[in-house]
Here is the input.
Amino acid sequence: MIAAAKPVQRPRDARLLVLDGRGAVAHAARSALVDYLRPGDLVIANDAATIPASLHGAHTPSGAPIEVRLAGRSSLRADDVQFSAVIFGAGDWRTRTEDRPPPPVLAPGDRLALGPLTASVHSELDHPRLVALRFEGSAAAVWAGIARHGRAIQYAYVSEALALWDVWTPIAAVPVAFEAPSAGFALDWSMLAAMRRRGIGFATITLAAGISSTGDAALDARLPLDEPYRIPESTAAAIRRAKAKRGRVVAVGTTVVRALEHAGAHTGIVTTGEGVANQRIDAYTWLRVVDAIVSGTHEPQESHYQLLRAFQDDATLARASGALEAGGYRHHEFGDSVLVERREPRAAIAA
Here is the structure.
């Protein structure tokens, strides 16, 4: 597939590949997504806004230049300013992530000078690039420093520097995501209005979407990292109503699938509250809540693709990947979209 190289969130020519529950493939304009939804369906999106999570500075003990990419934290509380972070050596987004040099050797207690901020390494998280960081100062001062000094995490396939608004979806609200919950770029207000007219529900959750690549194969294999989330009572109630009327729950993005399936893991019933999605969703996962997913286009080695294996078998996904390739679909966060329904039981398909 072709990498989407410009931060155009909702281009007029954006495309949608639809993979239905019987394994049939269809092609459409992304603006026609609503035509593949049904009255009674409930669409749920992640309303997390993206923070400027890339911070440049220096490793104080050695003076070596570094880039810190904030990658996770244990809650969504505003006073929680302890982060897990991926650390790179010298360079920036213009160099491919996998070609970035490693950071200097990091030890607990090392201080990092990051513009107006100072952080210290609390511990290494089983990999020399992944550490737990503690920032000095009040939570308000830390967030203000991140806002002033940070910039959006970016990868080399995007040809121009990203502004923060480039990575905010149309429904962005609470600034907690480390990278954009980019499936939400498929939405716009006219689409939401069309859904409402057709009796299709819409609700949101908030999940701190993590990073999509670290440049290290061993560390990438651990993605996604744990992600805190919040499910409001209005959303939990909307899910109960949709399920009672046999409507489908359609997740906009892998982050929504993770949150809902974590919350409903034991009973299939999603209740309001906060949690930390720490599970891996793949071909061996039994989906209890979500019936379909709107996502970007992904390649088989990516963790996002592995999650799609919970919806469809490998042979069907391979056919869909072939159709994406043959059709020249664009991938990565500013690319085209797919709608993947959960596969129907064999008996239903035969009927």
